[in-house]
Amino acid sequence: MLDDLPEQFDLVVIGTGFTESCIAAAASRVGKSVLHLDSNEYYGDVWSSFSMDALCARLDQKPEPHSTLRNCSYTWHTRDSETGEQPWNRDSVLAKSRRFSLDLCPRILYAAGELVQLLIKSNICRYAEFRAVDHVCMRHNGEIVSVPCSRSDVFNTKTLTIVEKRLLMKFLTACNDYGEDKCNEDSLEFRGRTFQEYLKAQRVTEKISSCVMQAIAMCDPTTSFEEGMQRTQRFLGSLGRYGNTPFLFPMYGCGELPQCFCRLCAVYGGIYCLKRPVDDIALNSNSNEFLLSSAGKTLRAKNVVSAPGYSPVSKGVELKAHISRGLFISSSPLGNEELNKGGGGVNLLRLIDVEGSREAILIQLAHYTGACPEGLYIFHLTTPAVSENPAADLSAFTSQLFDHSDAQIIFSSYFTIAAQCNTSVAAEHIHYTDAPTYELDYDAAIANARHIFGKLFADADFLPRAPDPEEIVVDGEDPSALNEHSLPEDLRAQLQNMQQATQEMDIQD
């Protein structure tokens, strides 16, 4: 296929992770010629989702020196069935391998967050489906309980007394009004102090304080008053848009999102080549162009963007552990029946260690997300890495979850996602994207994509809205009578590219 490629591109993107795919789509959308390469045979890199077989195969791979996925291990757990029924085991799970969509880097989206707004603005949302998160949870007195999010939840919950319900509503109203002209004296008094101090001054109960700190503001004792207020407002601003909680989760896993951006890139002429590593890269000092060698063909590019960990771009680049991940498959969910009605959906839980100095995010998925077969549950556990041993990094949180629970763990895996520490001297003019960072949503990744795109194409709009095929109208024609053959050649070619790209991406899925 490389023999048929043009020899020169405005932009070559190496790696099909989320950030790289955003940049490729944005460049293609504004008319730039884009070649998108990946040495993997799948889209997404460490942002990808895998079937059960494919995940095991990926974790079994010996990591290359600059691989961003490292320290991988997994274990199958065998349990005897007490009821005499056939239990879930390694063989029965692998038999349904294609029913799984297992994320390396799972995320939750704020309903009014940066990514949702970008998907709507660019019209990429037509390529994706989402499910509202069912419960935002916290640990209280050793149990996992649901945090009331909406007004109706607050007044219907049985975990709070009437007095606590009123205190919580009063507090949330004050947070929602923060920053407006009617901001009260208390808000002015606590500027420069911690958010926890403000909570204590409001004389809320310990349970309400835990609700706010753990699940709503998602902050720690050192979080400033201003930041705590902003986080609470972000939570409240996403409430009621698509469900009872302020969060969304992509159907069939977060690995769908990079592919959504790749689809748009392909529609506007971007060219994709998987299983195509870059063998060598150099900068021509005379023409100021990059010369890339891949599969015996030399390509020229005005700009190059690369994900970390792709050779030869990463020669001389040092990587260090950035995120520690645990992925578990269980035949029973966490929490009580109330949290898992009808087989469960998506539950979100933020965990704090005993010292209160570290945190982790747990995402529990049931079969309604399309991520696993019915009767099984996926637990995604993520924390900032403090060592090269992800199991040790997560031990404080796995003990909270599993030591005193009835969860029937069938499969457990641990791995590290590494980040780039420095820049290769030989590739100083290449724009590197950042590895996934520890965050709930995609804000840092989008900011990174915007920043790089702005450096490359300063005068171009980042991902303007793409029209739907039926919105393409030729002057003087009746839109209702248009068909593929009545369009001018260039628009017809664009429509055919759109259909072909969607078909090809669906085959890859």
Overview of the molecule:
The chain is of the alpha+beta class. Among the domains are: 52-100 and 318-421, Guanine Nucleotide Dissociation Inhibitor, domain 2; 148-242, Guanine Nucleotide Dissociation Inhibitor, domain 1 (Orthogonal Bundle); 469-508, no CATH class. The protein is built from 14 helices and 20 strands. It has an eight-stranded mixed sheet with strand order 4-19-15-18-17-16-8-9, with helices on both faces. Strand 16 (346-352) and strand 17 form a beta hairpin. Helix 1 packs parallel to helix 11, helix 1 crosses helix 13 and helix 8 crosses helix 10 (225-237). The chain starts with 7 loop residues before the first strand and ends with a helix. The model has no long low-confidence stretch (mean pLDDT 87).
